[in-house]
Amino acid sequence: MAELRAGIDAVDAEIVRLLDRRASFARRIGEFKQQRGMAVYAPARERVVLDRVTALGEGAFPKRGLEAVFREIISSSVSLETSLKVAYLGPEATFTHEAALRSFGTSIELQPQTTVAEVFARVERGEAEHGVVPVENSMEGAVTHTLDELMNSPLKVCGEVYLPVSQNLISAEESPDKVSLVCSHPMALAQAASWLRRELPGARLEEVESTAEAARRASVQPGVAAVGSALAAEAHGLKVLARNIQEARTNTTRFIVLGRSWAARTGKDKTSVVFSVKDRPGVLKEALSAFASEGINLTRIESRPSRKRAWTYVFFADFKGHPDEEKVRRALEGLEEHCPYVSLIGAYPEVPPEAS
User: Fold this and answer.
1) For the Prephenate dehydratase domain, which residue ranges apply (predicted)?
2) By CB distance 3.0 to 4.6 Å, which of 76, 81, 118, 189 could disulfide with 113?
């Protein structure tokens, strides 16, 4: 045992030495970017780094663990270049907070905001370099507040992250038997309703403004439990009494990263566009045929009221590819032939849902 631990100590020392060497390169890159006015956060470059290091993992260390480790290494490296500020839909210990941590790591300054509109406004005013907001849920559909802001904001989508929704029963109590009140956000309570009725039939349910507020109450009130994330339990010093109590096991929320420009091309990208169509039969089919003719896969399409004239709509679409690709340029030109309004609202590295 002593010999094996000595081996680990030697490896740890080498890892620290190499991290220090990596940090010196990061500082020099930061100086280069500052001299040329370049953005510090480079999602395309980060995706390439993460994909490369996970591909290098051929031993016993889990590939998901490699990505998590290097996410924090990149986060620390960015902090050496500048003080990066990221606004997100708060409060702390919510799923959006967790998504921001997955996107940027723990070494940047996270700024919780009370509404989606405030996240956009903070980034637009330059008080934060980036923002993180939810855009859709696999069970509930689109987050309309986010789509409405995207329609009118100069900001661009430069990243995405998928977060499985894992609801847990969390409390300061030692066991579920001592819980008389369960509180949480209405959606969280709805997702866990079947489990709560079956396992805690005598407990009263109460809706509060967020899962984070529910966790706070559970931390100070005897007999109270919350439905929320493991992050909320950790933040408020609570015990996880039961895990994954949500009814749907495939419930996932997609979040987007906002910035002033979209990401560079990586070769595995997605683009987001918003457009309106002329008022005549078959025009939407004709507009979308621009993508089909180029062999481009649409991954999502949503409609929203235009808010300019009653019963008129705009369409949000995500598709695989990047605006720098020739076939994407041709598809967008074809789209413009049928649409009075077309706006590219983002381009970013594609992240498979299971890889987030």
Assistant:
1) 85-260
2) 118
Stretch 142-165: mean pLDDT: 92
356: pLDDT strictly greater than 60: no
- Could you give the C-alpha distances from 185 to 8, 65, 145, 250, in angstroms and in order? 45, 31, 17, 19
What integer is the mean pLDDT of 231-237?
91
* pLDDT for 187: 83
Domains, the chain, ranges and CATH? 168-242 (3.40.190.10), 262-355 (3.30.70.260)
Taking 80 as the threshold, does the pLDDT of residue 307 lie above it? Answer: no
Write out the chain in H/E/C secondary structure: CHHHHHHHHHHHHHHHHHHHHHHHHHHHHHHHHHHHCCCCCCHHHHHHHHHHHHHHCCCCCCHHHHHHHHHHHHHHHHHHHCCCEEEEECCCCCHHHHHHHHHHCCCCEEEEECCHHHHHHHHHCCCCCEEEEEEEECCCEECHHHHHHHHHCCCEEEEEEEEECCCEEEECCCCHHHCCEEEECHHHHHHCHHHHHHHCCCCEEEECCCHHHHHHHHHHCCCEEEEECHHHHHHCCCEEEECCCCCCCCCEEEEEEEECCCCCCCCCEEEEEEEECCCCCCHHHHHHHHHHCCCCCEEEEEEEECCCCCCCEEEEEEEECCCCCHHHHHHHHHHHHHCCEEEEEEEEECCCHHHC
pLDDT at 355 over 70: no
**In the structure, what pLDDT confidence band is assigned to residue 41 with cuts at 50, 70 and 90?**
confident
Q: 310-337 pLDDT, tens per residue?
A: 667 889 999 999 999 999 999 999 999 8
